[in-house]
Amino acid sequence: MTKPVIVWFRRDLRLNDNPALNEARAVGGAVIPVYVHDEAGEAAWSSGGASRWWLHHALSRLSEALRARASRLIIRKGDSSAALIDLIKETGAGAVYWNRRYESAIVARDAMIEAALNERRIATRSFNGALLFEPHTIKNKQGGPFQVFTPYWRHCLAQAVAEPVSLAKGAFKQTRKWPVSESVDALELRPRLNWADGFARHWEPGEEGAQRRLKDFLKASVGSYAQQRNLPDMDGTSRLSPWLHFGEISPRQIWSALRACSRESGVFPANASARIFLSEIGWREFAYHLLAHFPHTPTRPLRVNFENFPWAEDSDGEKLRAWQRGQTGYPIVDAGMRQLWQTGWMHNRVRMIAASFLVKHLRLPWQRGAEWFWDTLVDADLANNTLGWQWSAGCGADAAPYFRIFAPVAQGERFDREGGYVRRWIPELAKVPNKWVHQPWKAPESVLNDAGVKLGEHYPKPIVDHAEARIAALAAFKAMRTAGSGS
Hints:
It contains 19 helices and 5 strands. It is globular and about 85 Å long. By secondary structure, the protein is mostly helical. The protein has a 5-stranded parallel sheet with strand order 3-2-1-4-5, sandwiched between helices. The protein folds into 3 domains: about 5-130, HUPs (Rossmann fold, 3-Layer(aba) Sandwich), CATH 3.40.50.620; about 130-165 and about 205-295, Serine Threonine Protein Phosphatase 5, Tetratricopeptide repeat, CATH 1.25.40.80; about 305-480, DNA Cyclobutane Dipyrimidine Photolyase, subunit A, domain 3 (Orthogonal Bundle), CATH 1.10.579.10.
């Protein structure tokens, strides 16, 4: 009689195109789906508040999907190794299957778990369920990792990508006795503060929600992605990042859906917009490539000379708090930070503007920004978060030069020309005319009076002057380079 197989779910909370689940079903015995909530096992990177909200609902949706297949999701808390060993004893399972992760602490933990299970003569198999191209499979001409995106992605595009595999229809083979399970509620994932209560208006966690979002994006927005992806007042991006992070959709499914859209033209990708969107999936792949090869980068810069960057003082945390709360006095920055707080997400163009403001206008360490995003983003992903912040700070791979300093007013006027994004998230500026909405401190007093705005009372004055901050940032960069050269 074939022994049951435990499928250990982690960041792969879906049924379709799930290699570990597919292979476990193919064995022919009972399949026992398991999720272990092991915060200590995540080392320094247990989920932040917004991600925990998403995880709660993602687990609930996965549990419902499994019940529809006459199965169930077994939930345990605590040490992953101990939980799996207990479940093996309780179920008589002969194997544990899972899909791989790539954070260094998780890789080390998984290796220890594999060794412990193999000692007990429990078979283990792991699979790639998260990436198009695993980090160890992509190498530059010297046999090392890439550090520049364009040659990396060009190399990737020359590789074959398999079609996603849908889960065969029908109920799962039953185990004789289901082990005891914790409830999703018992994990206490939802934030105690009510700040996340509004997230449900913006998001539909779960595999079905992911597929609906992909379908809507391909139908309505992918054709204009090249023109609209930088306009935060429009629904021009895929917004698939949280579903990708939790594995409710796989990059192979997205790749395949794009390829299907290209069949009429006979060219893949079909047009410039589809090519640019696919490259955004490529940036996610590149982020994991870097994280795997440079595991220190979530806390330390890839470029060693930035270890000694002369950051500004903020002993009372006043500047950091103003940035976090969307009270910097620069509307495009503040709108983004308020969108983040209210929805758990921020438009990518505005992420770059807000991040640049923190590290270059305020000259506060990029790690402080990464920590805030980690706690407040529903799509908080260690690889993407690290890549994005090191790019903004100029200290990572293929990063924007530190001397490239976004001018918040110019960025707002270029990408939010009519001010719709600012007015949505900063209602106190709703009546300020377009000419002044991105720089209300320059508006005539009569205009502000007509708009019902008193600077310093209804909306703050800028906490730094752009021109002065730019000069200070360039001076700090020069000082770092001078110190690094020993001159």
